Amino acid sequence: MTGKRKIAVIAGIAVLFVVIIIALVWGDNFFSGRDKPQEPKKDSSFEVLKINGSYVSSDIMKEESNKFYEKWKRNAEVLRMNEHERNDMLLDQVIERMLIEDYVNNKSGVTATDSEVEDYINRFIKLRYSGSSLGTFMSSQGYATEEDMKVGIKGYILRHKAIYKAAKEKNVTLTEQELDEGYEKHKIQNKKVDIKHIFISSKDRTQEEAKNLAEEIYSRLKNNEDFETLAKQYSDDEDTRESGGVIKELRAGFHEAIFDNAVFAAEAGQLLEPIEVARGYEIVFVDKATDFSRTRDEYAELLTVEKFVDSDMYAEWFEEYKQNYDIEITDPAMKAFRLFREEQYGEAGKSYEELYMAEKDVYYIERACEAYRLAENWTKLIEIGQLAINENPSNIEYYLYQAEGEFNGGDKDKAKGLLKEAEDKVGDNTYYLDLIQKMYINHGLNEEAQKITEKLKR
């Protein structure tokens, strides 16, 4: 299509969406479904997809392949997929990445200023990751310098704004309940605290005895007795007792929900009443609290984007948006699979037939037969079925395919002969006998079907 802008790809920006990418470069060990895929090869390159006349670069394909390899190399479900299923996932995800990046950077009209980037880093990165943990975070994201981090954060801000704009155009809204419940969890998950705690176990005392002791200690703390002294005397937490119950930079998720809900809702300087937990009671003093949560309005935008991306509305929006691009699959096998998936069975059959003629891979002739059957192109099904039988006479399914073609668009007597030949070949194989019987029944040959029933009873 003319007048369409060339897609701009900004390297180094992580994609907003979960990327499920497969690379052709992984080789037979991955595609054959063996237990452990090979790592992507360093010197591989491949061009299988054009968008608006330009190939998606090998660098992008390899970048996505590396991400996928690390994420899914031990996933049994993905390993069980065949080569063609995974390659089709590759196409969908690469297309989404390229088009979304073009939308964000060229079509959405959103911007991100340097001050917005600085504010984001100061509020949400440096508060969350202090000291050496900041370097660990940067390394995990592939940021060699703070300038690299600024580029990455700017990309994230742009994507967030762009997808939020699309969500609002699609009238995605939140209920007050969704926002209230989500924001409370968000605040708890985006806070770290320094605390002192005393754990009173109910292991060697009753729960009632544990409660009474915890309340006694709490009362003494309220009367300004030293927390660390009492922790060393009474706490049953062996890991922190000698330090006076001190825990630095505690995050939610390491204790029970009732503990987290109380501790991460507290302010610095607050002594909490005894918290009943599964194994006793916790007495907590919050020494320091660092909050890196969003404001309620900021969180509402995040939740709106999340709701949109996880909804059918996003899929509808993306399909509409995709119509603005010329997308061409240049790899023959990938193209054939995609045609079949999109129910363009006639074209898929033709593509698979051409692949078989070129490569003599039986998978392709099987797919050609199935595609022509679904296209109800009986002439081609008869032709390809006959070719398949000639070259692979032991495969019973080819007899069934050709017989289906003959029943619907050819010689019914020949169809019956093919089924009889198949019946003789399968012997007592109940799976194939059942398929043959169903075809007899579908075409009104009840007498032949009954003979199979009698054979199965023997």
TrEMBL record:
One of its GO terms (molecular function) is peptidyl-prolyl cis-trans isomerase activity. The chain crosses the membrane at residues 7-27. It holds the Pfam family Rotamase. The keyword Isomerase applies. Keywords: Isomerase, Membrane, Rotamase, Transmembrane, Transmembrane helix. Residues 190-288 form the PpiC domain. It comes from the Bacteria. InterPro entries: PPIase_dom_sf (IPR046357), PPIase_PpiC (IPR000297), PrsA_foldase (IPR050245), TPR-like_helical_dom_sf (IPR011990), Trigger_fact/SurA_dom_sf (IPR027304). This is Peptidylprolyl isomerase. It comes from Acetivibrio mesophilus.
